[in-house]
């Protein structure tokens, strides 16, 4: 009995010494899946940044002598219908995917979080209005909304990012609102209000830091969804425009040559799968690491 | 219960209003004059003027919106600019195709996702659990268009078992119809199976720790009875409503899946319309999907209350 008490108090002391962020990191790194995910994403970021150094060939250089050659020592992933090196295109394609995932979610966060804070903190009519608009956006299936927006804005990678970002926004409005409502009744928020802080200050400095963990988890999972969506839009011709390499548009041209050149379809799809899987692993790991209940 | 239902249905009105505004405004996002875009290659001022008048583009936006909604209320979704067919007819023609795909996908998702979730919860921490979780991660992370392409390569090109594309209606030849839809349905169902598996697993884990399951075990019931009769029934009710909510995922997935397998359904309709700049069709399709989604949400909410006695009150 006494032993047990001592043990718990020692753990409590350790917990107090550790900042929440450090504890979350320690718990994240204790999860194999999340670590694998982080390593893979780091590798892809390195590929994207150093693409000109790592890519063996120019990703847009065509060659009639090399049309649809199977994987070989010179071209590890083979070549495509225009004789371009698939490995180089997969490496350069990481740029479009990662940038699109990050910027789309950045757009969604920068619109969704302020509106969610406003709705959750203010309540009343403002909340009802924002809530119904969010419902309306959520009622349109994510990809259909993104396709419609991208089509109306015009096909380009930038517009695809905007379309995906806007389509992702309602998720963040709803999450921020819900979290804000549960946090704003906490004592420390009451205290901040009691000493006369203006609402924007309370929202920004007292509520927002406390809902960051939930936002971080959702943002990671949303990057995964945004990368799939960017590939989908590029596949349909609404994202990255040829000849710039993107995994989605590579799959589109691969489909036409499935009988003669199946390798064209294998690698870009596998790259999307790996990146999306890794973000999902990190997101799952973060959720477990940041969840106070699983401490 | 009635009170809740009333409130819930009242909430639908503003939601539907904003959905219609959102879809209507899509058209006005476009830079430039919509009449010019609608006219396409046509540069004849008379034709453009006629389009402007026909679509009331010369009137203020709220007036245009009013007439648009008025038309929809009476079942008039406008006319396809490209093929000059009423949008309503196009939707009526394509919707059943996607519905067949979607129903098959849901059946596949339930057949895979729920048993996998139950097994992984009951055998927590074993190879089975590990395998089921890997399957779920795989399902969530695989882009469905890539999975579709790989399946075509394997089953149509390499093995020659299934047609790579096309669609045969159920009424025409059910065998050929199933053969033409099984791959796209699997592609669609796969991602949802993964989501269902994860939810079933966590619901089962929660239920397995509950008092009534302990009681059932203490009574000396066999493990099989405890799991199948006591635990599963309670764990699955929220999962079934979740199935309805995944409908949005299905429709999003159908867009690309139908494109890859050349299935002439809703998804292909909207993609073709997008590329033909056929705005009336895009608006009609998005509006119909949103309305179906909102209705299914409502049904799911009602079903959830009906099966959960504590919420009935």
Question: How does this model look, in words?
Answer:
- Chain A has helices at about 1-15, 20-30, 30-50, 50-55, 85-120, 125-140, 140-155, 155-185, 185-195, 200-235, 245-255, 265-290.
- With about 300 residues, chain A is mainly alpha-helical.
- In chain A, helix 5 (about 85-120) packs antiparallel against helix 6 and helix 6 (about 125-140) crosses helix 8.
- The longest helix of chain A is centred in the middle third of the chain and has 37 residues, at about 85-120.
- The two termini of chain A are about 20 Å apart.
- The relative contact order of chain A is 0.15.
- The model of chain B has no long low-confidence stretch (mean pLDDT about 85).
- In chain B, helix 8 packs antiparallel against helix 11 and helix 9 (about 210-220) packs antiparallel against helix 10 (about 225-245).
- Chain B is mostly helical and about 325 residues long.
- Chains A and B meet through helix 6, helix 7, helix 10, helix 11 and helix 12 of A and helix 1, helix 6, helix 7, helix 11 and helix 12 of B.
Keywords:
heterodimer; A: 295 residues; mainly alpha; 12 helices; elongated; B: 313 residues
Please outline what is shown here:
The complex is a heterodimer of chains A (295) and B (313). Chain A has helices at 2-17, 20-29, 32-49, 51-54, 86-122, 124-139, 142-153, 157-183, 187-194, 199-235, 247-256, 263-290.
